[in-house]
Each structure stands twice: as structure tokens, then as C-alpha cells.
Amino acid sequence: METAAPSFALSRLGRRASAPSITALMRLALETPGLLSLAAGFTDNGSLPVTPVGEALRGLAEAAPDHAYLQYGTNAGRPGLRARLAGRVLRQDGRAADADDPAVLARWAERVLVTNGSQQALYLAIQTLCDPGDIVLVDRPTYFVFLDLLAGLGVEARSLPVDAAGRLDPAALRASLAAMRADGSLARVKAVYFIGWFSNPTGRTLGADEGRALAGALRAEEVVIPVIEDAAYREMGYTAGADAARTGVLSDPAWDGFPRLYAGTLTKPFATGLKIGFGLCDHDAWRAAMLHVKGHHDFGSGNFAQALLEQVLGDGSYDAQLAVLRRVYREKRDALHAALLAGGLAARGWRWAVPEGGLYLWLEGPAGLDTGGESDFCRACLREGVLYVPGALCHGDAPPRHTVRLSFGALAPEGLAEAGARFCRAAAAF
Ligand SMILES: Cc1ncc(COP(=O)(O)O)c(C=O)c1O
Predict the structure, then answer these.
(1) From atom 12 of ligand 1, which residue's Cα is the shortest distance away?
(2) Of all protein residues, whose CA lies closest to atom 8 belonging to ligand 1?
(3) Taking the domains of the chain in order of start, what are their residue ranges?
(4) According to the model, what pLDDT value does residue 5 have?
(5) How far is the CA of 232 from the centre of ligand 1 (A)?
């Protein structure tokens, strides 16, 4: 039987949505036999917490004979998990006394919304703050999936100015805010977003002084807008407590008066497949709006994964897993770094910092090099059998062409050594 050709038009959102930047690269990785990918932000398969998850499951079954952990949960998330997450963030911010005070902890737990990865918290934040045409200030460089998210919602990203060392430049920021005031675009600036610790893509932790200078510059220009602190890699430092170099926005008085959202995750530090993250938001109306929209999306993240995480956070196996990951990722960082050095990359004018946490090396190639997805350099890497993320994707505006993000999350150390050698062989021709 013939069916009539559908006649419909996609919504503006549907039309605006385009394939995420990484999609073409991921497809290439899958379609090219033998290709080693330093592109995708996947974690290490070999160290996924199979045993702790199995034990937690058995514990759940014994503790809840009614099997409620397999039932729907609530929109904001499991109360026990929200309390554990609030307590964890307070302790990381050096506020153990608050975490130990049941009344204070209960207030903070109320501010937590458990989400489908921290990615959903970021999406809800922008959906509830921005209309198409609005502007979000982002760090430079930044998390490219966040940039895709902004573009999908019709929101413009504007980079926070940085100096030659990649540190925030507060004077340039004040000048740029003043220019935006003069041209009328300041009214469209609805939020500021940055990655607090061991950034994707640079591996950098924002300095305590930089965070304060950022808050100070915004306040001085009377731009007291919602601030979104992305803490996806806070627990991924290679030594316990490495994140203590700075306090999060929720506890730093420099940010008092700004509506604050802290976006945290349990994926990278435990098991990415469980896909549970959270937002901790100290502004009641903003948090309520995010919860309402979340209710429309899914009326609650997976209760089963939440119950499992509540269990492992409580019995110590989450922290034991973190200790394993710290060693695993330090070794991987070392393997890739050593391969790049051995391949003579530094001698060819390439520069990179060696991060103290996270999953990435951020490389600056020789001036004038083009590392874009369609470039000769990219094709040379593919011929050698190695894939990377072009650094231009990680910039909200005015992207430099000569940067590269290499992820050491997924490949084993031997694979990283080989992938690094291939990258260096490709780079030798440029
Ligand atoms: C900086 C940053 N933020 C947020 C996320 C989202 O992670 P998830 O949704 O797994 O919590 C990622 C994932 O790669 C990330 O790199």
C-alpha cells in the first residue's frame, strides 16, 4: 500500500541541531581499520569497577527485598545519594564541619539535582537561562561538547580573554565587557561557564586567583550573572587532594551573590556507563526551573544506577576505585608524554604541558600549522593510522588553527606509545 509522503517541518530547534563536532571523527575511527584513536573522551575499559559493581548489586538485593531500586525514582534523585553528593562537595571545599552538621547537610542536599550525566545538568542550565541569540562566556579553550550544546540552542559562545600563558586576563575581560555594554550586547550575556579542575581539553586547573579575578571583573562591570562551574574532572587528579589548589564557586566568597551551579559527575571517576551526574545549585528559582524542565525530559534519572552509586559511595568502594584510576591515568599520561618526546615532537617546535589530572594532553603546534579536520596534517595522521581532536573545535570564537587535543583515556599504555609514535611520524613532514 502506498503511503503519502510526510509533509512536516522540523521545529527551529530541530533544524538548528547538527551532528556533534566529534561525530565525523568517531565515524572515521570506526571505519578505518587499525586506526588508533586519541580523539574520543572514553575511559579505560580495563579498570572499570566490575567487582565493586557486582558486590554493590548483591548488597542492594539483600538490603531492599522489595526491589525498590528497580522502580522509578524521584525527579530530583534519591535523597540518600543527594546527601552523599552534597557532603562530598562540602568536604572537598574544606567544609567538613558543615558536612557533619545534619541540618546544614540537609539544606545542601535539597540543592542537588541528580542528572543523566553532568551533561544533562549543563543542558538544563542553558535551557533555563538562555533564549536563542543570547551569549554565554566560556573559557578558552573549552569543552567542545558544551559549545555544540550552545550552538544547538542558538546561543552564542564568547571566550573569556586569556594571556599568552592561557591564564585569564581580567583587564582584557573588563575591556571586553565595557565594549559589549557600549554596543548593547551585554544585555544578552546570560551566564559564565568554566571548567574548574584538570580541564578538558587543557588539563589545567583554574588558579584560585584567576577564579577570584574573574568574579571581581564581572562584579566590577555589574555583570552578576549565573555562573556554571564544570567539575567533571575534579576527582581525576593523580594524587588525592590535588583539587585542593582552589575551592569551588559554591564555597568561595568571591562568588557570593552570583547564582551558582556546580556540575559534578560520577561517570569519569567511577563508571561512565552508569551515566549519573548532578547539579548543585544555590539559587532556588533557577534550580526549580531546571527541575521542572528535567521533569519534562525524564521525571528522574535512572534509579538503579543511582542506588548502586549511593551504595559504593557509602561503602568506600567508590574511593577505592578512584585510587586505582589515579594510578592508571598517571601511567597513561606518562606513556603518551614519553612517546611524544621520544618521537622528537618538542624538537619540531611543538609545546605541551604535563597535566596533574584528567585525560588529555593539549598540544600547540608550530605557528602556521593547520590541524583542522580537513587539513593536510589531519590526512597525514589518518594515513599513519592515528586520530586526534583538532583544537579549533574547542574554541568559542577566533579559533587558533595549530592546536590539538590528545586523549589518553581509552588506549592501553602500549597503544598510547604506538599512537604517539604515529602522531610524531605524521608531524615530521610539517
Ligand atoms: C568538561 C566536561 N564536562 C562534562 C562532561 C559530561 O560528562 P558526563 O555527562 O559523563 O558527566 C564531560 C564529558 O566528557 C566533560 O569532558
Answers:
(1) 232
(2) 117
(3) 13-48+323-427, 54-318
(4) 65
(5) 6
CA 175 – ligand 1 centroid, Å = 31
- Cβ(200)–Cβ(246) under 8 Å? no
Best residue among 139, 146, 199, 268 to mutate for probing ligand 1's pocket (most ligand atoms within 8 Å of CB) is: 268
User: What CATH code is assigned to 54-318?
Assistant: 3.40.640.10
Q: Kindly report the protein residue whose alpha carbon is nearest to atom 2 of ligand 1.
A: 232
Nearest C-alpha to atom 3 of ligand 1 is from which residue? 232
| Continuous H helices in 17-143 | 22-31, 50-63, 79-92, 96-100, 102-110, 117-129
Question: What is residue 18's predicted lDDT score, i.e. its pLDDT?
Answer: 87
In words, the CATH class of domain 13-48+323-427 is: alpha beta
pLDDT value of position 42: 87
Exposed/middle/buried for residue 339 (C-beta within 10 Å: 0-12, 13-18, 19+): buried
Residue 162, φ and ψ in degrees, nearest 5? -125, 160
Pairing label, strands 135-138, 189-195: parallel
Mean pLDDT in order along the chain per 10 residues (430 residues):
72 90 75 89 93 95 88 97 98 97 98 98 98 98 96 97 94 95 97 98 95 96 97 96 90 98 98 97 98 98 97 97 97 98 97 97 97 94 95 95 97 97 97
Cis omega (within 30 of 0) for bond into 170: no
Q: Three cell numbers at 211?
A: 577564579
What pLDDT, on a 0 to 100 scale, did the predictor assign at position 20? 80
Residue nearest to ligand 1 atom 16, measured at CA: 200
Question: Residues lining ligand 1, judged by CB closer than 6 Å?
Answer: 41, 117-119, 143, 195, 200, 230, 232, 265, 267, 277
Q: How far is the CA of 348 from the centre of ligand 1 (A)?
A: 32
